[in-house]
Specification:
Helix content: 25-40%
Number of strands: 14
CATH architecture of the largest domain: 3-Layer(aba) Sandwich
CATH class of the largest domain: Alpha Beta
Oligomer: single chain
Number of domains: 2
CATH topology of the largest domain: Rossmann fold
Strand content: 15-25%
Structural class: alpha/beta
Strand order of the largest sheet: 2-3-1-4-7-6-5
Length: 384
């Protein structure tokens, strides 16, 4: 039974672990930044197609110890790469390491690439070409201390590239992180959802797809389709079944707004491209002035973050006003604010009832929960 590893944004490992168990995975084990699991190839296809939180699904083809660069080369060379993919496939090698005693990761990358090419040359007197931008086959090496694991990437492009959001604004949140945040809020389809700073619409699209049972990978291709063991009938049947289970687009209680018209235009284009524009209500509005679209619901926002002094000053002025606006306009709602700015904890003048650490790439962030009641919710927090 093949062994796999699914990396994900740090902080979402427990959700991914639960999802993979629910799919029938075996030997599920979480680690920082991802989840190990085992299963058959149909499970691999399904995880790529359906999971919203994973970044990739990697097939582990080797695990070994090493002492030198030569050991790295030999570990890669001895594998039967030609059994797994064709020499006509273009390749790319990616190496990550923790506490690696070897001097150069670039040299290790070159060694593994040479080993794969040399194995093909021995087998068929040809070698695969390298394509660093859009390879057919991605080979991942992970080195920790004296152990090296080699993986074939079954996903291809990262899984947060759903194939539906082609227009982006500055610093958009990735789709799998947005999906994980929605899961952490406890939001369920049918519950009113508002993103009052929606940008390019990532939260809105993820929520609409969840509501209509549209699988996140339904609009794209995967690298497992290039592997020699690809089971086309199983995959085509799985994909057809997923399409048949989709619900037709309809107006949903999903709302998005933004202060800037350009952002709203971007969100609308992305919703239109995904066939979801009738599902979401968009309006141009200031987060400090917008009214709640329903008596109760979930508000989620990826707060802007500044790097220059002027931007930081603007945010420092925004936070207390935002806290006042949430108290004034969103009684009965639960607000979830995603931010990397620790100053918000003091400046909001509200006490979060939960703080969940998450990482947006390498940036440490917090998902702050505020249960809004009429007036200040300081009393609510003090009563707990």
């Amino acid at each position: 039974m093949p062994d796999f590893f699914a990396p994900c944004p740090r902080g979402l490992e427990a959700i991914l672990h639960s999802d993979l168990e629910a799919m029938g995975s075996q030997h599920v084990k979480s680690t920082e930044g991802g989840v190990h699991f085992s299963g058959d190839w149909a499970l691999c296809y399904r995880a790529n197609l359906e999971n919203r939180v994973a970044s990739r699904i990697l097939w582990r083809v080797s695990s070994s110890t090493y002492r030198s660069e030569q050991d790295v080369y030999q570990a890669a060379f001895k594998l039967q790469w030609q059994d797994w993919f064709d020499v006509s496939n273009t390749i790319r090698v990616h190496v990550t390491a923790i506490r690696c005693p070897l001097k150069s990761l670039e040299f290790i990358t070159l060694l593994i690439k040479d080993a794969v090419c040399d194995r093909f040359r021995d087998h068929c007197n040809e070698r695969p070409s390298v394509d660093t931008l859009e390879p057919d086959t991605r080979i991942h090496a992970f080195i920790e201390d004296d152990r090296m694991m080699l993986y074939l990437d079954t996903s291809g492009d990262a899984l947060f590239k759903r194939g539906v959001r082609s227009h982006t604004n500055i610093a958009p949140i990735r789709e799998n992180l947005a999906a994980g945040i929605l899961r952490l809020t406890g939001w369920q389809p049918g519950t009113p959802l508002l993103d009052p700073m929606c940008g390019s619409g990532t939260f809105l699209i993820e929520a609409a797809q969840m509501s209509l049972n549209i699988q996140p990978g339904i609009a794209r291709r995967f690298a497992f389709e290039n592997l020699n063991n690809f089971d086309a009938p199983t995959w085509h049947a799985m994909r057809a079944q997923a399409i048949a289970a989709q619900l037709p687009p309809r107006p949903l209680e999903i709302y998005g707004s933004d202060l800037y018209g350009d952002a709203l235009k971007t969100a609308l284009r992305n919703l239109q491209d995904a066939g979801l524009d009738e599902c979401v209500e968009l309006k141009q509005a200031n987060v400090l002035e917008i009214a709640a679209p329903a008596p109760a619901g979930i508000l989620v926002a990826n707060l802007p973050y500044g790097e220059r002094m002027g931007e930081l000053d603007e945010l420092a002025a925004l936070y207390p006003k935002l806290g006042d606006a949430l108290k004034r306009n969103f009684g009965g709602w639960t607000a979830y604010l995603f931010t990397a700015d620790k100053a918000i904890l003091k400046l909001m003048r509200l006490s979060p009832s939960r703080r969940t650490p998450l990482f947006n790439g390498a940036i440490e962030c917090r998902l702050l929960q505020y249960k809004m009641v009429s007036g200040s919710n300081r009393k609510e927090s003090a009563a707990k």
